[in-house]
Write a structure and sequence with these properties.
single chain, 176 residues, mainly alpha, Arp2/3 complex 21 kDa subunit ARPC3
């Protein structure tokens, strides 16, 4: 009975995390490269661990990308988005070992850089030509810069304090 209760608890956390990431993704969809999906996946990794949060990353990007108001993604781009999202949940899980805002700064930078590299490479491979290479190089740099800077701020200013509150909740649940 206890094992079944744990499975249900895990499924609920996965569903809630995915729903939150998707809702926040749609809420900011009009702002190019400013998003809270990555931060939500990071928090999921922090709370439920990277193994279960991989499901959150996959579900989030399948729903968010397949029902995106801008249209369906190419399968290669969708795979790159999911791969990039997995780095966010792994970093979130690792954050439990580091009580340091600098870890969150570096995580915001690296997770976003990896995500942008993967998706920009996928985008280039989908639309290969000499002209698209230059467009992806120039356009990708400016959009990536916005994405990286905004996620560094989100991770450092929002996620680090949220992490401290999550630690307090976990401690009070254990002792309470």
């Amino acid at each position: 009975m206890e094992m079944n209760k744990n499975k249900i608890h895990s499924l609920v956390l996965i569903a809630l995390s995915s729903a939150t990431a998707i809702a926040l993704g749609y809420a900011l969809v009009a702002l190019p490269n400013i998003e809270l999906v990555t931060a939500t996946l990071f928090i999921a990794g922090m709370i439920i661990g990277w193994k279960r949060s991989i499901y959150v990353a996959v579900i989030t990007y399948l729903v968010f990308s397949l029902f995106n108001p801008f249209g369906f993604p190419n399968p290669l781009l969708l795979a790159a988005q999911i791969a990039g999202a997995i780095f966010a949940v792994i970093a979130g899980d690792l954050s439990n070992k580091y009580d340091n805002p600098f870890f969150f700064f570096i995580s915001g930078f690296l997770v976003t850089l990896i995500y942008d590299l993967l998706t920009n490479i996928a985008g280039y491979l989908i639309f290969v030509s000499k002209q698209t290479f230059i467009a992806y190089l120039i356009g990708g740099l400016s959009f990536s810069l916005i994405h990286i800077v905004s996620n560094i701020l989100i991770f450092t200013v929002l996620l680090y304090p949220i992490r401290n509150e999550i630690k307090k909740l976990k401690t009070s649940n254990i002792s309470g």
